[in-house]
Amino acid sequence: MLIYCMGREAEAIINQITVRQPRAAVAADAARGIIAVEAEDAERTLYARTVEALDAYFTPRDNHLHYAVLFMSRSQQFEKSNEHFIRSLHELVSRCSGWDQQHKDEMMRIRLLAGMKDKD
Fold first, then answer.
1. Quick one: 53 and 84 in the same domain?
2. What letter does residue 62 receive in the DSSP assignment?
3. Can you tell me the distance from the alpha carbon of 117 to that of 120, in angstroms, rounded to the nearest whole number?
4. How confident is the model at residue 61 (pLDDT cuts 50, 70, 90)?
5. Could you tell me the superkingdom of the organism this chain comes from (predicted)?
6. What domain range is 106 assigned to?
7. Measured torsion, CA atoms of residues 61, 10, 23, 97, in degrees rounded to the nearest 10
8. Which residue, 22, 44, 92, 116, is most buried by CB atoms nearer than 10 A?
9. Phi/psi at 105 (nearest 5 deg)?
10. CA 61 and chain centroid, separation
11. How far is it, in rounded angstroms, from Cα 75 to Cα 110?
12. Using one digit for the tens of pLDDT, what is the confidence trace for 22-45?
């Protein structure tokens, strides 16, 4: 039913996505001696896991390199205030997830010194 609602192109995407029962659930079922789950419950959990996998597939990811390049190339525009420039740097550096806090602080100092046009 899900493939029918999504369209023909969705079948190829669903075939690429691997949907498995979590290992903890399989181990717990084996420990309790449960080998099979009722068909209705199995279909419901498979549907839920498939929807979760599709959400993960279609949710856009942040491009961390892109934000690092934007941060490193940011300079204060002549008509913008110092406060605006500093806020924009903080926003960009917060999206650079590959950097630890010490590195972010150091890069902020460098960008402030190199990119600030209005010295007032």
1. no
2. P
3. 9
4. confident
5. Eukaryota
6. 64-115
7. 0
8. 92
9. -60, -45
10. 4
11. 11
12. 555 545 554 554 444 445 566 667
| 37 and 68 in a common domain | no
User: Tell me, what's the pLDDT at 1?
Assistant: 66
Give the pair of three-digit tokens for residue 111: 């960008």
Give residue for tokens 């890069």: 107
What's the confidence (pLDDT) of residue 36?
46
Residues 15, 54 within the same domain:
yes
Radius of gyration for the alpha carbons in the chain, expressed in angstroms and rounded: 24
CB-based burial label for 48 (10 Å; 0-12, 13-18, 19+) = exposed
3-state class of 13 per DSSP? helix
With residue 114 as reference, give the H or E element that holds it. Answer: helix 101-115
State how far the Cα of 45 lies from the Cα of 26, in Å rounded to an integer.
Answer: 13
Burial category of 36 from C-beta neighbours within 10 Å (exposed 0-12, middle 13-18, buried 19 and up): exposed
Query: Is 57 within 8 Å of 13 (Cβ atoms)?
Result: yes
Q: What is the pLDDT of residues 81-102, one digit of tens each?
A: 999 999 999 999 998 888 899 9
Provide CB contacts within 8 A for 72, sequence distance 6+. Answer: 107, 111
